[in-house]
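Q: Got a minute? One more chain.
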Amino acid sequence: MEPTACVGSAEHVGGAPALRRLYLVRFVFAAVWAVLLVLSGSDLTAGARLLLFLYPAFDVAAAVVDARSARTAAGPVKGLYATMAVSALAAVGVAAAGTSGVADVLRVWGAWAVVSGLVQLLVGVARRSMGGQWAMIVSGGISVLAGASFLRSAAQDTPSLTPLAGYAALGGLFFLVSALRLSRSHGRG
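A: Always. Here it is, folded:
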């Protein structure tokens, strides 16, 4: 994870178009996912459980694509490997928790949001010379706070999955902002 190991900006320029495309795909996925979760309601139907599994599973796939397009094994790539591991555990954990109830799903999701948010923040810091990463840094911080909120809401009498849709939508917006900022930075670079 080494947040201080930063790849040189010349190497970042080559990775910006691939990262921009990935961020745009992540924005679209998050937006569609959020709408589908809201439409599924707060019951743990088979469809809702599938959606809940797909979100961290997609995060694993996105981290794999991101790591493959990275030009070096230093800096953010180590954080991407951490993301892959944490999100894979979250996908399995959410699938198991989905059979227990909404509160257990929120506990797993909350823990995942805290850890993956910290990793996202560190990767964003390591990539800051690339441009467009302030949104990823802020998003990572918000993810940590949101995760803590999900953990708290799991203890409520009637916990709800709806806040997860807002979490995904906001995260998607941060990916869009970052993609647009990368376009601007890359165009000047």
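A: The first helix runs from residue 9 to 40.
Q: Perfect, thanks.
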